[in-house]
Structure formats: C-alpha cells, structure tokens
C-alpha cells in the first residue's frame, strides 16, 4: 500500500492498519515503522471505552502465509498494510470485585408492572431496587433501565423512581446489551463494573451478565434484587453465573463498598437507606 507522504516521524509516511477488537474492526493508520507501543496506544484511542485495563492482553498479527492470526513477532514494525487484533487473556488481574462510584454503572432490568403477580418476592426486589437507585443518585452513579416489550408488559413499576436515569429503553431482546446501551456506556469514561438487578434471573439477567463479561466488564448481580417465576430457575442461574466469575452479592454489600469509609460525605444517607432493610422473605436463602 502506498504511504501518505509527509506523515509520521521523519516524513516516513503512514501505513493503513485494520484494528480489530472483540466483534469490532476499525481501519486507521500508524506512522511507518510503528512498533508495539504505538499499536497499543492506537487500540486505546479507538477502543479505550471498552477495554478493561484490569485484564492482560496480547496483540496478534494476521499472517497471510498461515491464513490466521499469530502472536505479534518480537521487534515487529509496521512497514506495510496489515491487520492486527487485541485479544484479552482469560487470566484476569485480580480486582477482588472492588467497586468505586467513578467506575460503576447500575443496570435495572425489566422491573415492570405485568411481572408483579408472577415473579416470586417481587415486592421485596422492588423495595431493594428502589433503594439501590436512591443510592446511585446519592453517589452520582449512572443508571441504565430497560423495559421488556412495554406495550404488552407495561412500564417500570411506579414504586421505582427513575429520576435522573441516563437511559430508559424499551426492548424485545432478552439481554440489556443493545446498541443504545453500548453507546451510553461508551459515553461514561472509565466504566469497569456493572451492578445488575431485576428480572428474570435466568433469562434477561443471565443473558445480560454473560454479554457484559464477554465485553470485559466486571458484573455484580444483586441477589436480593433479582428473582424469577421459579426459585429453581433463579437458583441455578445464580450458581451458573457465579461459576463464570460473575459476583453474586447483596444490596447492603454493594452500597457499603461504594462508600467504603464512615467518613464518606454520603455515608449517613446511605446508612439510612440500608436501615430500611428488606423483609425477611427467604429470598436470600434460595440463592
């Protein structure tokens, strides 16, 4: 491929490169002679909002002679048109599930009126969900809300106050990971963790969680704010998700992790939310 004159260090020109990450592929260019560090910088400039820096990565080059990707050769320099990809390794640098308000977003999934008579302990998860959203407002945490086919299943229940939600979106797909949701996440700098709750545990919650971890995000499912019609479906979904590395936790643990210190300026208000604890319904005994 012809290099563009005058670009790059020393007037060496630039070289077209296709940068691939996950399901995405974006054409760009780098200076002629660019190496590993410049490729990483370009990946971050293109996909920084989606790359979880708590993972380890390998850069691979598409090798025509093998018709597949190979690990970037030692000392590799870009001198002709090529295709590279960034691959997250399965080994993840331990984060221990730490949460900070600046890197967290809340997902409230399908807490709708028509589910009220069918979902076990629905009143309890509404109460806990409302307190989580109050906590999110106090701590300045973005909230994304979906409603499954609201034309037929109704809107989010009135008890849940959606004031200040970043996005309230109707859907027919079970997973919350829609193009509009991905775009909203891309607008939130530094997002690392998603706190997920709603219904149903074994359908929309499970599918959302699996898609999110596939994108390198850490997922915390709030056990006392998610349920299903069947407690067996709920139990096996939570067990399966925990085995994949998703963190199954509780609303009190989430809120106290987010404030982290008694001296936090919002601690008293968060503490008051926690004191309004959910009834002893037996929901958590069925995790």
Automatic annotation (TrEMBL):
Q: Which InterPro entries match?
A: Isochorismatase-like_dom (IPR000868), Isochorismatase-like_sf (IPR036380), Isochorismatase_domain (IPR050993)
The organism's superkingdom is given as: Eukaryota
- Membrane-spanning ranges: none
Domain Isochorismatase-like, which positions? 104-252
Q: Per the similarity annotation, which family is this?
A: Belongs to the isochorismatase family.
Q: Which PANTHER family match?
A: HYDROLASE (PTHR14119), ISOCHORISMATASE DOMAIN-CONTAINING PROTEIN 1 (PTHR14119:SF17)
* Name the UniProt record assigns to this protein: Isochorismatase domain-containing protein 1
Q: Which organism is it from?
A: Rhabdornis inornatus
